Amino acid sequence: MKYLACLITLAATPALADEAWVTNEKDNTISVIDIATQEVTRTIETGERPRGITFSKDFSRVYICASDSNTVQVMNPETGEILNDLPSGEDPEQFVLHPDDRHLYIANENDAVTTVVDVQDRKVVAQIDVGIEPEGMAVSPDGKVAIATSETTSMAHWIDTATHQLFANTLVDSRPRHAEFTADGAQLWVSAEIGGTITVFTTADQAEVGKVHFAIPGVNQDLIQPVGFRFSPDGTKAYVALGPANHVAVVNTQTLEVEKYILVGRRVWHLAFSPDNSLIFTTNGVSGDVTVIDAATDEPVKSIKVGRFPWGVAMRPTPAN
Amino acid sequence: MSARLIALRAILLREALRFTQQRSRFIAALVRPLVWLFVFAAGFRAALGLSITPPYQTYITYETYILPGLCGMICLFNGMQSSLSLVYDREMGAMRLLLTSPLPRWWLLFAKLIAGAVVAVLQCVAFLGIAAIYGIRLPLVGYLAILPAILIAALMLGALGLLLSSRIRQLENFAGVMNFVIFPVFFLSSALYPLWKMREAGPLLADLCALNPFTQAVELIRFAAYGQANLPALGWTVLAFVLFAALGVRGYDPGRGLTKSKG
């Protein structure tokens, strides 16, 4: 009887494993990948066209940009149940959670605004006019600066998070898609999809300090479209998804030179490190899979089928007991 | 040591001696697949990656895809070369001498096959080493697992060569047979392109490729290169080896084969 009780308890307990959560833009679902087994263990329904995805600091909630439902959904990651919707403004595509764990900065592509939402009160705190078709969102590690990149205006807009006012606009190359601060907050990197570059700024004076260029032998330059990227935990490398070029570039953050190109699936869009930083998961939109890269060797090890047009990816570590 | 083992050792040593002394043969055996790898595969580079088919777990470049096929190519040419040397030996006398020994003929031919297969394995090891320096690498376990697979493939293709050599009377005829055997066997296989690609071109072509024992040998090598056993490919390759070897030995039977026809 005791064994039976143990078995029932085990069966009722959610699997204790690090997970990668992947939004499938055309399936209106999230694929949950068990990082240890590298297999999809759950598929959870969401609102229409899920794209941006991020977890709360304690991983008790997951926020999902349901772009065509014009909302940000808040989900219980244990049960997959939608807890509530947030007033996100129209067509939310990407967002970033402020280090205070309370404010979401959301890019509203169709309205040319950035919406700031208080996730506790579920209220819009501010709407900030930015350039046309905002997409990339970032917040500095100290939480003082938020960035919105506008695809059509080709700018990075610098927002003072205390006043919710723009205090600088900096030009980047055509169609900026994604922005990230370095871990120390000293630099801001912005990728430009059509321009095919990443522009690097110093945060203190918003001055451009360099550009990253890409070239893959045998691949037409037009196909090289940098989109999502992440810094390695030690800050020495940046991994850049190159869209229809089907490669991830490994960039030396000191020299801004590309050290390696890693072959992944078709139209690689975003990527994320596993919680233990040993693996990188890339979302490959057209091939409908996620490529796993060994971060120690920078070699691709496996591609895992998920839903149609995977877009964003966020990591959920093993729940602490 | 029994007489059979002495004979086996002698034939192995003779083949090893040839292998080490005929440097041009060794270089030629390496240059052929290297040209395919560095020139042909570069042209078909598929920089955007090939679709995932087993045993591959993710997207690969064309160079990675054809590596096992080129190991198969080394075995194929080595098998044919070995059979060419059989015809030569038979014409020039060395083989005649060997076949007059009191040991069973099948054993002598089998020893010859083993010796040829070991040479093929050595050539493949050198080829894989150069490919690794160039940056086309296998998983570590693959470098071990691929060796027996190459040996089996080389034995099967050596047996095919043995069968052919048992049917050829003169050295001059050999070039024609090479053209009629090597090219169809190599191109109608999965060495250069995956079977699904052939199926797109036509189901008949894909079926012919699947039936080709060389395809099975290449797939055996391909799966072994990634630490996996492809049992159907192994079964078909072994079956083809048994069949070719039996027919080849029968061809060398004085009562039935060439010796009889020469009177």
3D architecture notes:
Chain A: InterPro entries: Host-pathogen_enzymatic-act (IPR051200), Lactonase_7-beta_prop (IPR019405), N2O_reductase_N (IPR011045), PQQ_b_propeller (IPR022456), WD40/YVTN_repeat-like_dom_sf (IPR015943), YNCE-like_beta-prop (IPR048433), YVTN_b-propeller_repeat (IPR011964). Chain A: It comes from Fuscibacter oryzae. The complex is a heterodimer of chains A (321) and B (263). Chain A has 321 residues and is mainly beta. Chain A has one helix at residues 2-12, and strands at residues 19-24, 29-34, 39-45, 50-55, 62-66, 71-75, 82-86, 92-97, 103-108, 113-118, 123-129, 134-139, 145-150, 155-160, 165-171, 176-181, 187-192, 197-202, 207-213, 229-231, 237-241, 247-252, 258-263, 268-273, 279-284, 289-294, 299-305, 310-316. A four-stranded antiparallel sheet of chain A has the order 3-2-1-28, with no helix packed on it. In chain A, strands 4-5-6-7 form a four-stranded antiparallel sheet, with no helix packed on it. In chain A, a hairpin with a 4-residue loop joins strand 26 and strand 27 (299-305). Chain A starts with a helix and ends in a 5-residue tail after the last strand. Chain B has one domain (3-258). Chain B is globular, with a radius of gyration of 19 Å. Chain B starts with a helix and ends with a helix. At the A-B interface, strand 27 of A face loops of B.
Brief summary:
The complex is a heterodimer of chains A (321) and B (263). Chain A is mainly beta.
Tally of helical runs of chain B: 12
What multimeric state do the chains show?
heterodimer
**Weakly predicted, low-confidence segments of chain B:** 259-263
Strand content of chain B: under 5%
Strand content bin of chain A = over 45%
- How confident overall, as mean pLDDT of chain A? 92
Q: What's the total number of strands of chain B?
A: 0
> Helix content range of the residues of chain B, please?
over 70%
Proportion of residues in helical segments of chain A: under 10%
Q: Count interface residues per chain for the largest interface.
A: A-B, 17 and 10 residues
Principal-axis shape of chain B: globular
In spatial order, strands of the major sheet of chain A run 3-2-1-28
Mean pLDDT of chain B: 85
The biggest sheet of chain A, with number of strands, parallel, antiparallel or mixed sense and barrel status, is: 4 strands, antiparallel
Q: The biggest beta sheet of chain B, please?
A: none
- Give me the number of helical elements of chain A: 1
Measure the end-to-end span of chain A.
25 Å
N-to-C series of helices and strands of chain B: HHHHHHHHHHHH
